[in-house]
């Protein structure tokens, strides 16, 4: 995904370009997803195509950190739920940590994996340039659950990019439109009759993610 970088190494991405960048990502790693609506095999793409290693762990006492991407060998803080305290654990570069409690919610674990894959694809330079201040610490990002509507800082833009592109690779524009229209998105009432549930099931995402995608693609207006 060739994109221009800002002076602090954050990719410059406009909202209008999100879907074409997502299509570029899928063309590179899993072009089948651009040909038929399906749940994107995020674990296979991460591990077999991108060479990452997924580990489901407890990341925080409050379960408010959903994922972490590790950009260099080193230690990160995880939460030992049995002992009720934080511990430091060594991980290798390319480890993709997912908060294990996300497995309880349909689609949230998959969205987190997609989000972290985007960090790996786009944000390595940025994270490698930030000094963690501790030699034994890994360079890593800790990603929370908040949705950013109006990002300002570099960190907020990075999270906005990862969220926007995760949605766009899990629900590729053309396939999502196709499926939504097949299911009757032209009829406003269809939303109440399980359309969102069908879309969420078809793409393996949460109901909320499918609903936001509907709105962002203007499908409510049809
Ligand atoms: Zn993130």
Structure at a glance:
With 222 residues, the protein is α+β, with helices and mostly antiparallel strands. The protein has helices spanning 18-29, 42-49, 108-122, 124-129, 154-170, 173-182, 195-203, 207-216, and strands spanning 53-57, 65-70, 74-80, 85-91, 95-99, 140-144.
Structure, described:
There is one protein chain. With 222 residues, the chain is of the alpha+beta class. It has two domains: 15-169, no CATH class; 171-222. Helices cover 39% and strands 16% of the residues. The chain is built from eight helices and six strands, in the order ααβββββααβαααα. It has helices at residues 18-29, 42-49, 108-122, 124-129, 154-170, 173-182, 195-203, 207-216; strands at residues 53-57, 65-70, 74-80, 85-91, 95-99, 140-144. The strands form two sheets. The protein has a four-stranded mixed sheet, covered by helices on one side. Strands 3-4 form a two-stranded antiparallel sheet. A hairpin with a 4-residue loop joins strand 3 (74-80) and strand 4 (85-91). Helix 3 crosses helix 5 (154-170). The longest helix is centred in the C-terminal third of the chain and has 17 residues, at 154-170. The radius of gyration is 18 Å and the shape is globular. The mean pLDDT is 90. The structure holds zinc ion (ZN). Zinc ion binds next to helix 3, strand 6 and helix 5.
